[in-house]
Amino acid sequence: xxxxxxxxxxxxxxxxxxxxxxxxxxxxxxxxxxxxxxxxxxxxxxxxxxxxxxxxxxxxxxxxxxxxxxxxxxxxxxxxxxxxxxxxxxxxxxxxxxxxxxxxxxxxxxxxxxxxxxxxxxxxxxxxxxxxxxxxxxxxxxxxxxxxxxxxxxxxxxxxxxxxxxxxxxxxxxxxxxxxxxxxxxxxxxxx
Length: 192
Fold this sequence. Notes:
Elements: H1 9-17, H2 21-43, H3 46-62, H4 74-106, H5 110-120, H6 125-132, H7 136-147, H8 152-159, H9 163-184, H10 188-191
Helix pairs in contact: 1-2, 2-3, 2-4, 3-4, 5-9, 6-9, 7-9, 8-9
């Protein structure tokens, strides 16, 4: 009985047509590293390279007849599949990021919406009223950040607090402000 490790690539592909899992394991052992490395160079992350490599070997398993020994080596065939699939993944990721960025611009998050609103109505009576109703520590950091232009780091230094504490206070204060400002809007009762 011949061991699959002793067979040439073309014979292993023939065994794949008969659904021999040992042949696939041997092909992966021989060529998996090269396929993964090529994919990694294109997609730039280990997780995406893993996905590409898996897809290449699943495609080989599902369609072993696509490999034609007369057109080149199995490694070249697998690397070609990996390269094309990796480019597809990069394009899909870029398109996904463009869609997410576009969606984020069209549908800003509540915090983005609130920050924009604070910039637009910084001197408005309703904002001043809402700010006065905030706890002193939250009011102070929001004033420093949004009305006096200090960075988180600068505020942390001014107050002798960790930067994370300052960010947390700002986040908490913005949430409270959002609730207060939206409750002051004349049409907010009809939106609920």
